[in-house]
Amino acid sequence: MAIQVEHELHRRRLGRNTALGLALGAFVLLVFVLTIVKVSRQDENGNPPGMAPTAEAGQ
Amino acid sequence: MSDFSAIDTGKEAGAGDFVQLLKPRVMSLVVFTALVGLLVAPVAVHPFVAFTAILFIALGGGASGALNMWYDADIDRIMRRTQNRPVPAGRISEGEALGFGLALSLISCLMLGLAANWFAGAFLAFTIFFYVVIYTMWLKRSTPQNIVIGGAAGAFPPMIGWAVATGGVSLESILMFALIFMWTPPHFWALALFMKDDYSKAGVPMLTVTHGRRATRKHILVYTLALVPFALALGFTSIGGPVYLAISVALNLWFVKGAVGISRRDEAQAEADKYRAEKAFFTFSLAYLFLHFGALLIEKSLSAIGMGGW
User: Fold this and answer.
1) What gap in Å lies between CA B28 and CA B26, rounded to an integer?
2) What residues in B contact A48, CB-CB < 8 Å?
3) Which of B267, B179, B268 shows the shortest CA–CA distance to B217?
4) Which ranges in chain B belong to alpha helices (H)?
5) Testing the interface with B: which of A20, A30, A35, A41 to mutate, by most B Cβ within 10 A?
6) pLDDT attached to residue A54
7) CB B198 within 8 A of CB B83
8) Which residues of B touch A41 (CB under 8 A)?
């Protein structure tokens, strides 16, 4: 049997690596957008929205 | 030579095998119920935070699926329905499935905690623990009530969704849990009646095997009747309303009618029409759950225009 350069096994391995690469890329993007969302919704004291306002907040 | 044959078996796993490890069909139920739990909660969640939360709840559910396939590889190899899963088929090793499941569990719980709140993250961790340790490792092989208690794992997602929004537990979220929890036994036992899996060979004590089919039919009726008050009670909470209640009454009448029909049949009748009533009951049970949660969504969208609820 001749040695094949491209085996079916390589195709599956490429598919697996591509999927992992895409998953990692998507994860990085997700954390980035999540950070933007969380940081931009903080008030001037760094509290997330919905936290009990302090006494001076009403003034 | 043996080196060559070792890699030339054609059993290298593709990306699809890892997706299969996550039990995507179970995941769709998890996504839908968790999303409803999140959306009907009285606290609004930023859309992207909600998306992230649902994604990691789904991933956590998938991780528990992978851990289940790791632990159950020995019985999966015996039963015909599960023989082609990635681990028993030899495409993914047991160690790989374990590592994949553990890593995803850790990532999903941490990310849910960071994106939403730590109560929700801990709740997801508990759900994975419950499904993998309590159900898979302990109950599944030791009691014919395995389905009943194991169903709790599948019932937690709407509570987690609710916890993402509110950071806690309430009557509404407990009743959403109860709805799925009580629904699971009749749903699965109907499946067990017509699937006729080789559970006994694999040593899994299924009710159909340990107590017989006659008893299973009775169990379906009793559990269906026990489910009804929980389904209706949800209609009287803050997330229910007249529309939900109307839909729920209709669904429950139909479901009980189906259960009564199943309990009155015997095996000869079922064999004669190829388990038509059991299959119809099983298919309807899926619609039953989907429509109940859909009705909660309808109430929520009606309340947005001032018409939902009581």
Assistant:
1) 5
2) none
3) B267
4) 2-7, 15-21, 24-40, 47-71, 73-76, 94-115, 118-129, 146-155, 157-166, 171-195, 199-202, 207-210, 212-233, 242-264, 267-272, 276-304
5) A30
6) 52
7) no
8) 46
- Contacts with B20 (C-beta within 8 Å, 6 or more apart), sequence order: B85, B86
Residue of B nearest to A13 (CA): B14
User: Please, are residues B258 and B277 in contact by the beta-carbon 8 Å criterion?
Assistant: yes
Size of the A and B interface in Cβ pairs below 8 Å: 34
Interface pTM (ipTM) of the complex? 0.82
Residue in B8, B12, B48 closest to A12 by CB: B12
Nearest Cα to Cα of residue B112 among A25, B171, B104: B104
The token pair at A31 is 């954390």
Question: Using the beta-carbon criterion (under 8 Å), do A9 and B8 form an inter-chain contact?
Answer: yes
Short-list B167, B147, B151, B148, CA closest to B159: B167
**Cα A46 from Cα A39, distance rounded (Å):** 8
Chain-chain contact of B14 with A16 (C-beta, under 8 angstroms): yes
Displacement of CA B18 from its chain's centroid (Å): 20
Question: Tens of pLDDT along B63-107?
Answer: 999 999 999 999 999 988 889 999 999 999 999 999 999 999 999
- Contacting A with CB below 8 Å, chain B residues are 7-8, 10, 12-16, 18, 43, 46, 48-49, 52, 55, 114-115
CA gap B236, B230 in Å, rounded: 10
What does the alpha-carbon distance between residue B1 and residue A37 come to, in Å, rounded to a whole number? 57
Q: What phi, psi does B72 have (nearest 5°)? A: -95, 10
Query: For B107-169, what is the HEC assignment?
Result: HHHHHHHHHCCHHHHHHHHHHHHHHHHHHHHHHCCCCCCHHHHHHHHHHCHHHHHHHHHHCCC
- % chain B with pLDDT above 70: 97
* Measured distance between the N- and C-terminal CA atoms of chain B, rounded to whole angstroms: 75
